[in-house]
Amino acid sequence: MTATDSVDVLVHRALLYRDEDEFLDVTIPFLWKGMAQGGRPVVISERAGLVRRRLGRRARGVEFIGAPDWFGAPARTLTAYLAHARDRWWPRGPLYLVAEPVWRARTAPEIREWGRLESLLNVAFTGTPTSLLCAYDVRSLPAEAAEDVGRTHPELIGVTGTRRSALFTDPAVFYAERNRVPLAPPAEPVMSRGFSGGDLAGLRAFVAAVAERHGLPRERRLALVQSVSEVAGHVVRNGGGRGSVWVWSADGRLICDVVDAGPALDDRYLGYFPPAPHRPAGAGMWAVRQLCDLVEIRSGAGRTIIRLHMGHGPR
């Protein structure tokens, strides 16, 4: 047991495992401890079947959640974590959560944002009765995701014990670093349109037409139009007053850049946490992050780019 083993503070550990036995040798004692402490054990992993079989009858005391649906989009996953913890998990005792993200078919921007999510969990759950055990199968883990593990988890755990991560990085610093990663240039062909305060209706019609032309389902088209409208409205109200929109298709999804030539946008944690009385400014961007599969924000050189990703179906 380490000094951070307490139900009164956040414990956030990463398990890098090389086979199923190593995975079970760490996760099963963790779940047993949660049950012994009167906590709420939860497993979100595609290896849930292995856990069920190893636990036997004791598996009835564990909540199992499907990993592919849960790990659809980073911002929506963070919202689900917070909502479940508040409404279902903490009321029943300290949370003991085994979580294993799904990495199949992730693009480079997605991998970067999942790393950001792991870092933000240190902010979201600080001071709560939460023990997070994040599992990573090194046999299939993307290289960039592997590089993030030690930087986003204060502790690393294995069959030989627990140790502090010498690479752990303050979430605010990690977040700022992610915002300095250059965006990939748009892929041709690109359709673009300028906008100003009196032309948002025309902008919505333009985005809807492009999305329909690319075969985006109606519900997803509406979500993209709503998101672009919200971001463009922010530009008109709080930015340079006018901007441009660039739309193209890549990686099986529609990507839309909303470009603001005005002041740099302060995007520290912008839109990642649910709206609250002390965070009214981020409500619109929080909604945008819930609607889109991925949102990237970059400010610099006298402009801000808000890049929205929308696939043909929820991830």
TrEMBL record:
<dbReference type="Pfam" id="PF14417">
    <property type="entry name" value="MEDS"/>
</dbReference>
<feature type="domain" description="MEDS">
    <location>
        <begin position="12"/>
        <end position="154"/>
    </location>
</feature>
<dbReference type="InterPro" id="IPR047718">
    <property type="entry name" value="RsbA-like_anti_sig"/>
</dbReference>
<feature type="domain" description="Histidine kinase/HSP90-like ATPase">
    <location>
        <begin position="200"/>
        <end position="308"/>
    </location>
</feature>
<dbReference type="InterPro" id="IPR025847">
    <property type="entry name" value="MEDS_domain"/>
</dbReference>
<protein>
    <submittedName>
        <fullName>Anti-sigma factor RsbA family regulatory protein</fullName>
    </submittedName>
</protein>
<dbReference type="InterPro" id="IPR036890">
    <property type="entry name" value="HATPase_C_sf"/>
</dbReference>
<dbReference type="InterPro" id="IPR003594">
    <property type="entry name" value="HATPase_dom"/>
</dbReference>
<dbReference type="Pfam" id="PF13581">
    <property type="entry name" value="HATPase_c_2"/>
</dbReference>
